[in-house]
Amino acid sequence: MFLPILFVLSFLFSSSNAADFCVGDLNGPQGPAGYSCKKEAVLTVNDFVYSGLASTGNTSNLIKAAVTPAFDAQFPGVNGLGISLARLDLAVGGVIPMHTHPGASELLVVIQGTICAGFISSANKVYFKSLNKGEIMVFPRGLLHFQINSGKTQALAFVSFSSPSPGLQILDFALFADDLPTDIIQETTFLDVAQIKKLKGVLGGTG
Amino acid sequence: MFLPILFVLSFLFSSSNAADFCVGDLNGPQGPAGYSCKKEAVLTVNDFVYSGLASTGNTSNLIKAAVTPAFDAQFPGVNGLGISLARLDLAVGGVIPMHTHPGASELLVVIQGTICAGFISSANKVYFKSLNKGEIMVFPRGLLHFQINSGKTQALAFVSFSSPSPGLQILDFALFADDLPTDIIQETTFLDVAQIKKLKGVLGGTG
Amino acid sequence: MFLPILFVLSFLFSSSNAADFCVGDLNGPQGPAGYSCKKEAVLTVNDFVYSGLASTGNTSNLIKAAVTPAFDAQFPGVNGLGISLARLDLAVGGVIPMHTHPGASELLVVIQGTICAGFISSANKVYFKSLNKGEIMVFPRGLLHFQINSGKTQALAFVSFSSPSPGLQILDFALFADDLPTDIIQETTFLDVAQIKKLKGVLGGTG
Amino acid sequence: MFLPILFVLSFLFSSSNAADFCVGDLNGPQGPAGYSCKKEAVLTVNDFVYSGLASTGNTSNLIKAAVTPAFDAQFPGVNGLGISLARLDLAVGGVIPMHTHPGASELLVVIQGTICAGFISSANKVYFKSLNKGEIMVFPRGLLHFQINSGKTQALAFVSFSSPSPGLQILDFALFADDLPTDIIQETTFLDVAQIKKLKGVLGGTG
Amino acid sequence: MFLPILFVLSFLFSSSNAADFCVGDLNGPQGPAGYSCKKEAVLTVNDFVYSGLASTGNTSNLIKAAVTPAFDAQFPGVNGLGISLARLDLAVGGVIPMHTHPGASELLVVIQGTICAGFISSANKVYFKSLNKGEIMVFPRGLLHFQINSGKTQALAFVSFSSPSPGLQILDFALFADDLPTDIIQETTFLDVAQIKKLKGVLGGTG
Amino acid sequence: MFLPILFVLSFLFSSSNAADFCVGDLNGPQGPAGYSCKKEAVLTVNDFVYSGLASTGNTSNLIKAAVTPAFDAQFPGVNGLGISLARLDLAVGGVIPMHTHPGASELLVVIQGTICAGFISSANKVYFKSLNKGEIMVFPRGLLHFQINSGKTQALAFVSFSSPSPGLQILDFALFADDLPTDIIQETTFLDVAQIKKLKGVLGGTG
User: What are the annotated disulfide bridges (chains A, B, C, D, E, F) (predicted)?
Assistant: First the structure.
């Protein structure tokens, strides 16, 4: 007896999956707004769930830290939804070096340990604080910021972003891990040539 | 000798704090894009840090759960930045009832315990799964969704939103905790009058 | 003599059709911002005109109502333009059941008859009123709302949306017309199991 | 017994009215995103309802037509919601002259009569058609368009816009009803001076 | 010794080029947000540089002016970045006729000569001024505006737009250089038929 | 005889100035979308014109360069319009040091001289080139970039931005011209303490 409702309304639901979400098809064309959408017919709950942040990142490296992203490239379920996440693991003495996200604001929540986090505004005003478990801090879009394990135990945090593809520009990698010529670095940063060459040596930069 | 640089460039930084952020002035006028901005001159790091999510929410209630928000109204530092956060505490048997956020997508990360989370799409397709520690799930903007402690221990999750003021419409509260007339509820939900009156009795609804 | 103008300016108009509009190609890839564009060269005025709302919807069903959409999936001319339309027909006693549009605000204009329309805010405040011919009402994005023929004649309304693909989540269909398990419904809505089973029976739900 | 829920959740609803809507306070400060918001506490359903479009516009004028807007300035309930409406009345022979809406796309639905409507794209391609009752046509953002009563009876249409403040620039008023100097009009439109002066005379232009 | 950093972080950079930019692939599908992106792997600096504005435009035409665009169709590097540019050359007596950009605001800077520039608001208020070298003027989105060489020498200006595809609707071309029927023009602009036919004759219009 | 048109349509133009533009009132409240609007009644053409970029900037400083902005704080006419401009003067040997604009993409046009400009992507790929008069280059939002006078004469460029308040974070000023502690700089940039102290000494940093 209710079938008429189903009949009348069901055509509303035929081809309109973009209204709700747009799980990214990493092999399809990509545009300024993100990846192409997979059809809803092929989706399962696993397209909206990601387990890649469940394990502790490997912090056996010089910065004693690991960043594990769940951006749209790793977790296509967030494509087009204006949000993404990453996991930060910081061993004792660990540091997430000075960096920016060109396309997103960031919100950090400390899950374990103590993290000294900070950012610098366009007005060259510095905002930093040591954060304990459960405390949160926001880093406005595009500004230089950093996180340091300021405690005596392993630290864990999750950071969410206001974009599915926030980007990540780590200052030292941008300057010293590519082929940006030493003289350009010197002229545009006022760093000494010896300092530049030392860091290029460590980070693999050429030029 | 460098002072000329400072002199030449410093005027850039005089009155442009809106470029970077807009910490909300909860007492100023509010517009469609959010609260008015506080002047950068009066800001400290504490405007960008919030400690209100550090404590376990009180789950001694019927749903055995608590939602603690850090939206712009609680944490004005996120005003205008396209992001916010909330803490979910679920005691054993706890439930965050069926609800929507009218203005934001949501990204959940399980910190402790096991949570069965799900949502329903416009196409009436149901997506739900039991999530363990470290797993994440995305709930697209505006869709009905829920979270249930599906384990045998207290559960904790953080949920981030793609807006500083995502809104929250809990289905049962919308229907049964206000003065929406019983006959309108009956006509628009097909629920039996007895069922409606029972829930209104519990939730305090009138009309 | 004016030909030089044509010559100089004409190249401006060669490949820039996306500047003005993007009539959807329903067979091309779809992204978060909508469907791919058809080339302007193949377009005619009929790509911008839709006749599918001209006929009265079939209201011979239990809700005595019909919703006929002109979203981008039906009317690709609105793709990317931030707007769409639907037609509501309500026979005497007809009801558009409680529902949300996850991605759009809605603006209703009564063309014929009398319609009692309302919505519920995140603050659980109820706004409803009986509207006569020519009166309009706005339903903010993502909130539960409904329309009831509150008169003694057939009613007609047009509703416009702030998105070409507003989505439509009808509460009863979301809960009772799919495979959402009864125990989850019970836990997350506090409805009685008998009530849930009754409505699942009518609406075809399983699980 | 349920009171603890109310207690735990109620603080969510205290000051967050901007999440759902922002009914415009026409006397408060106005920003790029619209008017300031009225507090939800003072709102009633009448803030979301507008009756100003219910009456036939006065078409006893030279264009035999009337445009009655329900933009945010007339209907503050749409402020910030990305949508607005207007009513078009066209007597026999009535014309809505060539115009643009600088900030919105438009979607027209014919309620009564026959309307010849059209627009011109950036590529100087003309799209126009005679529309009957129930037919709809979309006019992409910012493009010149027009509506003419092409039938033998009074015509009525509603037009919705993808912005609460779409703006309206009527070509003849822009050119001939202000103080734009005749020589500038002549140089920038190639119209003859006699033609310009004639229309300025009729429309009240000076300069 | 630093290699572990590279190892740990490098996977962040694998497939996320959309985070930063989306150089347009003019042969790929186009959506409402712009062209499809080229892969970063194939990009060189020349994708972000355009030389097409370096030469003086040919002003040997009736308007004694030339507009040379660097929109996304000509300069795909700006696709998705919210900005584009054009070069205006005006010989003595040159005029950029009355026009609109349906999708963007415009900012003009005079490089050489003197330019009288102006626009008309929706309120039919005229704003115009003679601008000298180095002066800038903004033309809000979608409004009719013009530029006239008001000096005694060749003039040059650059205009930037708030969109990679601002569109361009030149009033005379829209009315008189296509197949818009003369009677429709007459009815919607109040221009005399003789005037319309004269301009159609010059600009190549039919209909 | 035409007065009826004026009468019927004129009320459209009464209070809707926000539709077209929103000239910033620097003394009014500021929100996430920008400054409050001045009323159109008080505006003149000078609100849309700015002469502050007409003079050569003072390059008698260490970087032999000057940046002169026309952001909303200097030129309130661009408030809310999604665009702004700045003038770059570079004496021989002049350099605009490595910097980002957190909130905007940038489009540079060389007016005089030769400028070596470049940026670094999130993928640590370097894009730089020497640009001659009339050539343009785009710097995507939020990425580190620089400009160097690579010629033997004074250079001049105009840069437009995709926001009225793009922000400006100069790397050396962010690190060395404020009170960011030396040990935090060292830990987050890997620079040697001696290098940090040297640049702090020059730029006036403390801490």
Answer: 22-37
CA distance F160 to F145: 14
| CB spacing of D8 vs B165 below 8 angstroms | no
Q: In this complex, is the C-beta atom of F112 within 8 Å of any C-beta atom belonging to chain E?
A: no
Q: Quote the tokens at residue C106.
A: 């809605």
Pick from B144, B59, B88, B166: nearest CA to D7: B59
How far apart, in whole angstroms, are the C-alpha atoms of residue D141 and residue E143?
12
Cα E110 to chain centroid distance, Å, stands at 16
H or E, element range at F29: strand F24-31
Q: How many beta carbons lie within 10 A of that of residue B120, not counting itself?
A: 24
pLDDT surpasses 80 at F191:
yes
Q: What per-residue string of b and e applies to F139-169 under the rule 16 or more CB within 10 Å gives b? A: bbbbbbbbbbbbbeebbbbbbbbbbbbbbbb
Q: Which residue has the tokens 């229907």?
A: B175
Note the pLDDT tens digit of each residue in F94-152.
999 999 999 899 999 999 999 999 999 999 999 999 999 999 999 999 999 999 999 99
Taking CA–CA distances from E77, the nearest residue in chain A reads: A32
pLDDT in tens, A106-157: 999 999 999 999 999 999 999 999 999 999 999 999 999 999 999 999 999 9
Instruction: For residue F63, give Cα distances in angstroms to A171, F67, F95.
Output: 21, 11, 5
pLDDT, one tens digit per residue, over D146-196 is: 999 999 999 999 999 999 999 999 999 999 999 999 999 999 999 999 999
Residues C81 and C50: beta-carbon distance below 8 Å: no
DSSP E156: E
> Between chains, do B49 and A143 touch, taking CB under 8 Å as contact?
no
Tell me which DSSP letter residue D106 carries. Answer: E
Candidate from E81, E131, E162 with C-beta closest to F138: E81
Return the HEC string of B82-139. CCEEEEEEECCCCEEEEEECCCCCEEEEEEECCEEEEEECCCCCEEEEEECCCCEEEE
DSSP category for residue E63: T
Q: Check if the beta carbon of residue A86 is closer than 8 Å to that of residue A99.
A: no
Closest CA–CA distance from residue C183 to any residue of chain E (Å): 41
CATH 2.60.120.10 segments of chain E: 16-167
Q: Do C19 and E165 touch (CB under 8 A)?
A: yes
Contacts D189 to E, Cβ<8 Å: 97-98, 171-172
Whether ipTM exceeds 0.85? yes
Chain C residue nearest residue D19, CA to CA: C122
In this structure, what DSSP letter does residue C56 have? P
Q: Decide if C89 contacts C57 (C-beta within 8 A).
A: yes
Residue of A nearest to E29 (CA): A29
Q: Which residues of D touch B198 (CB under 8 A)?
A: none
- Beta-carbon separation of B177 and D18 below 8 A: no
A145 annotated as belonging to a binding site for a ligand: yes
- pTM beyond cutoff 0.80: yes
- Crossing angle between the packed helical segments D182-189 and D193-203, to the nearest 10 degrees: 120
Distance from CA of E84 to the nearest CA of C (A): 12
Q: Would you list the DSSP string of D37-51?
A: EPPGGG--GGGSEE-
How many beta-carbon pairs below 8 A join chains E and F? 176
Return residue ranges of chain B for CATH 2.60.120.10.
Answer: 65-167
Q: Tell which CATH architecture fits domain E16-167.
A: Sandwich (2.60)
On whether any CB of chain F is under 8 Å from the CB of D31, the answer is yes
Q: Please state the CATH superfamily assignment of the domain spanning residues B65-167 in this structure.
A: Jelly Rolls (2.60.120.10)
Interface mutation target, options B51, B53, B160, chain A, most CBs of A under 10 Å: B160
Band of pLDDT at residue C19, cut at 50, 70 and 90: confident
Contacts C12 to E, Cβ<8 Å? 67, 69, 168
